Amino acid sequence: MADPMRIRAQAAGDKTTVRILMAHEMETGQRKDAAGKTIPAWFIQEVTASLNGKTVLTADWGPAVSKNPFMQFTLKGAKAGDKIAVTWKDNRGDTRTDEATVS
Amino acid sequence: MKNRRQMLTQSAALAGLAATAGWLPATALAYSKDAFDAKSVADALKAVGVTGAPTESKDVTITGPDIAENGAVVPLSVATALPGVKQLMLLVEKNPNAVVAIFNTSEFVESNFTTRAKLGQSSDVYAIAVMNDGKALFAKKEVKVTLGGCGG
Amino acid sequence: MRTTTSLSLGLLLLAGSIALPAAAQKTTAEGIAEYRALLQDGNPAELFEAKGEDLWKQKRGPKAASMEKCDLGKGPGVVKGAFAELPRYFPDTGRVQDMESRLLTCMETLQGFDAAAIAKTPFGQGEQKNLEGLVAWISAESKGLPLNLPQSHASERRAYEVGKRLFFLRAGPHDFACATCHGADGKRIRLQDLPNLTKNPGAGDGFGAWPAYRVSSGELWGMQRRLNDCFRQQRFPYPGYASDVTVALAVYMGVNGKGGKTTAPAIKR
């Protein structure tokens, strides 16, 4: 099971800034190991975020997103106490979902 | 592709999401493999269905540092305040594959996304807004990289 | 021609502190400073901090015990502020110990792990991987505090003098010393400005920034790993993990950095 994400969601007026740190290798598939073999690509492909259970953001990623990815976006119309959930799915089919409360 | 039940049993916090739309229904946008396989900016745009050449626009912005100490982690933001935008794409021209990320716009979030990208070498980076009518608007800036970020 | 505009709220908050005239050409140093500022928010070290906090509380090892009774110098279980006062003398071991050496002591006496085996484990593997989380969290619990290493015990003062000797010792095929790179103001390797570790602000800035997340490798490095790599770059033999040599050097830097506010776990190239 992958390590948990760090999700911070801070409301300021009508806008909520959501910052997410995900734990993932994001291996490009370009690197070779010490023996000269290519290290297989392993990276997050799909990211979704929901607010109180409703999908508000979807994104597709490639392996050029940095290791231990950071993402930030701004939600409209959320308020303190609302639940944010973020899910990622990688090219191996592994997935991880974490939640946070808007502060 | 795993079915929904198998995917959810692997998630950490599944209780609240089990019944709700944590995942888009199957009819929604599937992973744009062709766009991510594309080598050039032009091919990537073709892969997402853009018609014609992209136009530079002051209403699309790409934000980031002028110089990156290490190409492995370059903070970049793509943004637009225009209406009628379907997707915002982040591309690095000189990367082995140009597309870094594709953000789908929605009424619930501002069309303003920040992430960090690997740059293999100094390169122009692009924010491209793909409009509902199939046209593309872009902004670009140069990022100088002192140490490339794709290899070891 | 730059076409940058900052619409992102986060970036505005970060870049607001860098006041650059609109038409002026940025110097390279300013450009690098801007790059570093943009990375401050969302430091992947936070992922390691979360793991470290869990590891501290988890019952582990042959004795199935947690680390919650570990004394890092301010009493058993006191983590807040401990990092800013390490290395220091510990009566129970009769030695001056840094954070990682002390963690080995606790992992052995409280949890039953084999400290010598952990010291031999390569960085990033096995229990060394867990140490990354522990040092990230423990240092975070002192973040922003002024460095305040004690020098009240004779062993602490001796460690400082030994560290100073080691700092200026020229050895290896290139005749390098730590001082070669870190012994004066204004030194630089390519684009990296090197801190002068013999006095503040360099010593406080330099010593107080490790552990750190290195973006170039996507790894969390403790001070032990940082020193190990310095030895490698000087073409010295590798130091023993948490050995007296490494602790003495840490005392020298940390005491020189007295009063400097820690930033660990920081984010580095």
From TrEMBL, chain A:
Residues 7-100 form the Sulphur oxidation protein SoxZ domain. It comes from the Bacteria. Pfam families: SoxZ. Signal peptide: none annotated. This is Sulfur-oxidizing protein SoxZ. The lineage of its organism: Bacteria, Pseudomonadati, Pseudomonadota, Betaproteobacteria, Burkholderiales.
From TrEMBL, chain B:
Gene3D superfamilies: SoxY domain. It holds the Pfam family SoxY. Coiled coil: none annotated. It comes from the Bacteria. NCBIfam families: SoxY_true_GGCGG (TIGR04488). This is Thiosulfate oxidation carrier protein SoxY.
